[in-house]
Amino acid sequence: MGRSNLNSRRxxxxxxxxxxxAWVGSTAxxxxxxxxxxxxxxxxxxxxxxxxxxxxxxxxxxHGGYDEIHEPYRPWAASxxxxxxxxxxxxxxxxxAEQDVAFVGDVCLRCHTPGGWLAGRSTxxxxxxxxxxxxxxxxxxxxxxxxxxxxxxxxPPDDADxxxxxxxFPVIEGNxxxxxxxxxxxxxxxxxxxxxxxxxxxxxxxxxxxxxGMCHDVSNPAFDAQPDGTYVLNDLDMPHPTQNKYDMFxxxxxxxxxxxxxxAQGAIEMGGRFxxxxxxxxxCQDCHMPDGTGRGCNRSSRPIRDNLPTHYxxxxxxxxxxxxxxxxxxxxxTGLTDASVADSIARAEQMLRAASDLDIWQDGGDxxxxxxxxxxxxxxxxxxxxxxxxxxxxxYDGGDQLLGEHGAYDVGTATLDTASTTVYETKIGVDDVxxxxxxxxxxxxxxxxxxxxxxxxxxxxxxxxxxxxFEAVQAAPVGHPYADGQYWDxxxxxxxxxxxxxxxxxxxxxxSRDYIEFLRDANMTNDDGDVLYAxxxxxxxxxxxxxxxxxxxLVTQGGCNPADIAExxxxxxxxxxxxxxxxxxxHDPIADLSGDGVFDLADINIFVTSFIAGxx
Length: 616
Prior knowledge:
Blueprint: H1 3-26, H2 57-63, H3 73-77, H4 88-100, H5 105-112, H6 114-118, H7 140-143, E1 146-147, H8 158-164, E2 179-180, E3 186-188, E4 200-202, H9 209-213, E5 217-220, E6 223-225, E7 231-233, E8 249-253, H10 254-259, E9 268-269, E10 280-281, H11 284-288, E11 291-294, E12 305-309, H12 320-327, H13 338-354, E13 356-363, E14 366-373, E15 388-396, E16 402-406, E17 409-410, E18 415-416, E19 423-424, E20 426-430, H14 432-438, E21 443-444, E22 453-457, H15 467-472, E23 488-494, E24 501-509, H16 513-521, H17 528-538, E25 545-553, H18 574-586, H19 601-613
Parallel strand pairs: 3-4
Antiparallel strand pairs: 1-2, 5-8, 6-7, 9-10, 11-12, 13-14, 14-23, 15-16, 15-19, 15-24, 17-18, 20-21, 20-22, 24-25
Helix pairs in contact: 1-14, 4-17, 16-17
């Protein structure tokens, strides 16, 4: 960039800062003065379909009600795909985002209600003009009319004309830059042969991960990436200058994480851990839509296939479908039943258990917990806010009494002791410029629509990870080093005196208490935050899911009980008192009897109680 262009850019940025500063100063709850143009994305545009996206009832009659496991309809209905627009987490998040930044909801509605967006009903971008049909989420008719912009493999001849007449061609997968057949010509991976119930086309786009990438990489196009790695606001009322997601601020990079993994290079033998009829997996669909044996519709004349993709769309969404069931108990349009909700949650929990492995061992006076990522993207991945994985370690003495705990979770208050353990998560927030513009404190914040810095990302990368590869797709670790090829992480926990056993667990949580309370308290527009909070309470406060468990018998490092920390062992005397006091003052692990890394009254109480109890 030449000096004159650089100076022009600085002047433009200064002008935008002035506009935003005026916005902040005008009222505490005013929106950022962006327009719909700031969030434009290429691909098929609203109002351009000859035939609108059809209602789910046009599909469920033939593709549902005959095989609850292998039919497409009921598994889809009980998934996050089917309930994407009814999802109370999304609804509350959308409300706050719209409060913060005008028209940003256009980015969100593209993928949560593509039918409503294509029909032009996503304006206003808060979703207030949507019809009942638009709440059918990522529907059958939408997905099966998608056109591969880059024509991987075999695709219908119709695609050539569709793509040639597309005014705004997608630059890259992401942000809902999808292309949709204007006619109701439904596509899929199979040659249906003599099938005449509706128009159909065979397309290799459907087993291809790039199909998923259209919505599973999300960026904020209001920001532009700078050579120094920062992100600054674009000129207002203008589309992003390149429309390349890698020039925007990254919010989600699940698809890109996969592209930079070993799975994208070919199938990896996983022993069938993700279900279905195959054991070696590569694509998104291999794990999230594992092949089963069955028919794709209710006609007995149609072939039974061993490679029929199931429409479970299993992921980490553990309680949302139950919340939707609670909110729409008598609404047949959801397609949900108590049984289908329970099955969906059970599948999500099984997917989470399959996503990681845990190994533990003793290293002198420490326990080492290794969590290995067995998924095709980071662990965890997806929407970052409130989503986390952590390690819980409990130490017990010979009487099975708890001596200390790391990563304790209080089920009554839904609070996690984050200071004493490793929590795998992403935290995004604002820098000094955006802090000055918005009035938000510099650092992490849940106001994702104005965030422009990744402050933490210690999530475990997948097989095939390289620092250069993940840097190239804006998914590099932040604040935690991973070596090239490393798809595991080790956490070290000091063994408290007297411990004979360590129980280690890995937990996943979809929504932290802090995030849910933020969405409740930040809402100044409607009751979406209160509705969400009530459902969070009613469904168990996003109860953590145990992904892994292991127990380890410890080699005794000390004497008869936690207070017996100095030689001679099995005798409690002044040597132990002196060793404890010295260790406590010096913050020596020998005096951290609770094993939580903090030197406080808990350690003193354990020492005094144990000293008085004496040796057996």
